[in-house]
Amino acid sequence: MTDYLTGFGGMHETEAVAGALPIGRNSPQRPAFGLYAEQLSGSAFTMPRSENRRSWLYRMRPTADHPPYEAYRGNQMVGAKGSDKPLAPNRLRWDPPELPVGNDFVDGLVTMLATRDPADLEGVALHCYRADVSMTHRSFMSADGELLFLPQRGALHLFTEMGRLDVPPGHIAIVPRGVRFRVEVPEGGAGGYVAENYGAPFRLPDLGPIGANGLANPRDFETPAAAFEDVEGDHELIQKNGGHLWAATIDRSPLDVVAWHGNYAPCRYDLTRFNTLGTVSFDHPDPSIFTVLTSPSDVPGRANADFVIFPPRWMVAEDTFRPPWFHRNVMSEAMGLIHGEYDAKADGFTPGGLSLHNVMSGHGPDVETWRKASEAELQPHKIDGTLAFMVETCWPYKPTDFALQRAQHDYDEAWQGFPKAKVPDAD
Ligand SMILES: [Fe+2]
């Protein structure tokens, strides 16, 4: 059974064994039971209190006890940079990528889209994964970025240093930069997406005139209660640093944190709890109205990464074309589909697939969707049975060579054949 603490980004404290958590002192010389006190900082020590993220972990042995890391000999497809070739300003789309079979999460993770170098401390990458078996006797951590999990097929069970998270499709999970975890696949196989955020940690967006409630509400984020394992024997630590994977073997499980407190911790969120807002008069709000989480950049209002969903919702506006409008955008948009159909595309965008509309590329509904929507009676209409998402960023995405080789060849045809408008002669 998994226990959760509720609330987003707040201070939590939890102990798997009564008495393990010290009261009043972060780092006593002698923690209970001989535990080791270790601070995990997700922000510079001197960040303002509102931005400061850190947790104190009380563990059976210190993380520092490990031999030198060496280059990992397994998966070489995660952390790949974007293709070096000049990228034509074309829209791109992918069927669900065929990823190598029979791997666990670490070896089944493939980078599709990249932006900045992790050392820039800005940017976001989008990976796809196929995990057919659970990770055993090994664990993973990214020192490059925060990981946003989006399972599409099969539940994930994330056993992190700070507790256990059950993450079925339709949920997301966030594992902060530097938090170690193992991925189990209780249903025997899983696939989906992971966004890796190199920039400021994801947070809830400000709500402005919306008010104090709405969109993703803080109380619906669930952080795991402390849970640990006491397992001796070889354990492979795999770590992503600087876009490369590194490995070292220790003599125990590193998931040995008996108690912790702080505001730097993994969490999960059920996307059906998102309080979708929209127009009740005319026109669409901008898609930012669907923002679940945002990673700000140094420029006010310009996101390093926005995580946005298009969930089931009612469309009730008057005099309004119901699908998303045609648009071009200075931001770059990567989209995926968890289940169902996305309302702007008649076909070609299937669950597990991906699309990319980079900076200023023209896009919107395809011809068939436009025609149907133009002829439809405008009455209240529910978009149901669907869940699409977008990771939008101010940094143009670069597909990796792996992705470029697998892009659909005919995506541009989605917008071919619009009839010319019949405009009378100018007066
Ligand atoms: Fe768009």
Short structural description:
The protein has helices spanning 367-375, 401-404; strands at 4-6, 12-15, 36-41, 54-59, 70-71, 92-94, 109-114, 124-131, 138-142, 146-153, 156-160, 163-167, 171-175, 181-184, 190-197, 221-224, 232-241, 244-252, 257-262, 267-270, 291-296, 303-310, 313-315, 332-339, 354-357, 381-383, 387-393, 398-399. The protein is mainly beta and 427 residues long.
What do these coordinates show?
With 427 residues, the chain is mainly beta. It has 2 domains: 4-270, Jelly Rolls (Sandwich), CATH 2.60.120.10; 272-414, Jelly Rolls, CATH 2.60.120.10. 3% of the residues lie in helices and 36% in strands. The protein has helices at residues 367-375, 401-404, and strands at 4-6, 12-15, 36-41, 54-59, 70-71, 92-94, 109-114, 124-131, 138-142, 146-153, 156-160, 163-167, 171-175, 181-184, 190-197, 221-224, 232-241, 244-252, 257-262, 267-270, 291-296, 303-310, 313-315, 332-339, 354-357, 381-383, 387-393, 398-399. The strands form 6 sheets. Strands 1-16-20-13-10-15-8-7-28 form a 9-stranded antiparallel β-sheet. The longest helix has 9 residues, at 367-375. The protein is globular and about 85 Å long. The termini are far apart. The model has no long low-confidence stretch (mean pLDDT 95). Bound molecules: fe (ii) ion. Residues 327, 329, 333, 357, 363 line the site of fe (ii) ion.
